[in-house]
Amino acid sequence: MNTATPHTEPVRIVIVSPVLADANNGNWQTAQRWRTLLAPHAVRIIKQWPDAEAHRHPNQPDQVMLALHARRSATSVAAWAERQPLGAQGLAVVLTGTDLYRDIQSDPAAQQSLALAPQLVVLQASGPDALPADLRAKTRVIFQSSATLPTLSKPSTQAQLRAVMVGHLRDEKSPQTLFATASLLQGEPNLFIDHLGEALDPALGDAARATAAACPNYRWLGGQPYTATRRHIQRAHVLVHASLIEGGAHVVMEAILSGTPVLASRIPGNVGMLGEDYAGYFEPGDAAALAQLLRRCRGVSMGSGISSGDDWLAHLGAQCALRAPLFSPDAERTALQQLVRDLNNTNTV
Predict the structure, then answer these.
(1) Are 157 and 184 in contact (CB under 8 A)?
(2) Helices then strands, each counted (H, E), the chain
(3) DSSP string, 84-114
(4) What is the enclosing helix (H) or strand (E) of 108?
(5) Which CATH superfamily is domain 12-145+328-348 in?
(6) Which residues contact 137 (CB under 8 A, 6 or more apart)?
(7) pLDDT digits (tens, 9 = 90+) for 280-327
(8) How far apart are alpha carbons 253 and 230 in whole angstroms?
(9) Which CATH topology does 161-326 take?
(10) What is the pTM of this model?
(11) How many CB atoms lie within 10 A of CB 202?
């Protein structure tokens, strides 16, 4: 679908990502997907600007910069602003979870990126609330997207419950919460937890191995290719997302678009994707609460009117299905193309 402005040349766009393909994380997935959704514009993904391509073609300068991460892309943001005749025209800074909920509070480089950018982008509906009031007027929400996968038929939770958590092992993702939950549930029959993600913190990798040795119902599967990861999500009864900081998690969106309901920490980044009234929240770091929710998914009574785990999961699944249209590729493409038109217009005024 070609949504570029009619009768104009493609815009030269640079996406600055602090990590590239080898990291296989959310920033890279966002950059790669946006390059596709922004066709037919001329888009390249780089780690720092100006790069060799910018130096090689000084008479055909980049027109729009989309900088992922206020702190880690701050050098590129500052260089872009310095080279623009009227300030940082054509620039949008896309804010991650560590930007919104940590760095902009105290990091001067992140704060400078916010001040320089004429446009800020957040990836879930609670994002603007984390910004100073004077910056919200130049902030827009663009939900990320993914392909919808068929909802698979799964065994009744009376036979077994399979949960999956996806995320590289680092403190922000709170794998410690899952380790503690697995320990609390190790005697539960037919309740299994798979954990996917590289050990970015070696100590957390050691903790994952120790948990697997002590808890037969927990498996740490390490890093997995994207297709395999989505297949794990699609086959699970429920996704666990225990993050302490999140800007708009791909994995939550991918679960929703796979027909797999979510148990999520009640943090702004998750609430901004799942909605205020979602029933599957637990407080951040509360392993006992997460264990109780998994028992409820398994069908163990918590004194509610829900008669079985299957009914409870169907209730969560119905709530997730209501959010699914937010994460369609067409919606993200439309929002991105509009962002580029708006940014490029500031360059031609």
Answers:
(1) no
(2) 14, 12
(3) STTSSTTEEEEP-HHIIIIIHHH-HHHHHHH
(4) helix 108-116
(5) Glycogen Phosphorylase B; (3.40.50.2000)
(6) none
(7) 999 999 999 999 999 999 885 444 444 467 889 999 999 999 999 999
(8) 11
(9) Rossmann fold (3.40.50)
(10) 0.88
(11) 9
